[in-house]
Amino acid sequence: MQDGQITRRQLMQWGAVGAGALAVTGLPATDALAAPRSGVRVTDLGPGVNNFSLAAAIAVGDKAYIASRNIDPMRIISFDFGTEKVTSVTEGPGISTQLLAVDPDGRYLYSAIREYDSAPGPGFIRLDLSVADAPKEDLHSIPGLDPYAISASPDNKIFFGGREPQPKLRQYDPATGELTEIAIPDPDVPMIRCLLATQDKIYIGTGASLGAIPTSTKAGLFVMDRATKKITSILPKEFAGQVEVRDVGLYDGTLYVCSTTDDGAAVAIMDAEDPAQYTLVQSKQSFLRLPRKLGDKMYFNGAALIELTLSTGEFREIKPKDGDFGELWGLWIREEKVIVVSAFGLIFEVDPSTGTDTSWDLIEAGAPMGPQLGMSIAADTHNVYVGGTNSVARHDLRTGKQSRVLATSESKDILLHRGTAYLAQYNAVGLLAYNPRTDDEWTRKLADLPPKQNRPHQIVWDDRHQLALMGLQSDYNAGGSLMTFDPKKGATTVAVNPIDDDQMVRAVVAHDGVAYLGGQNVATTAGTLVAWDPVRRRELWRMTPQDKPTGITGLTVLGHHLYVMCFKGDFFVIDLRTRKVIHSADHGPVVPNYGTLLADRGYVYGASSSDFVRYDRKTFARTDLVALDADWYGIPRAAVDERGRFYAIRGRNLIRIEVGRR
Question: Which of 143, 262, 494, 599 pairs as cysteine with 450 (C-beta 3.0–4.6 A)?
Answer without folding.
Answer: 494
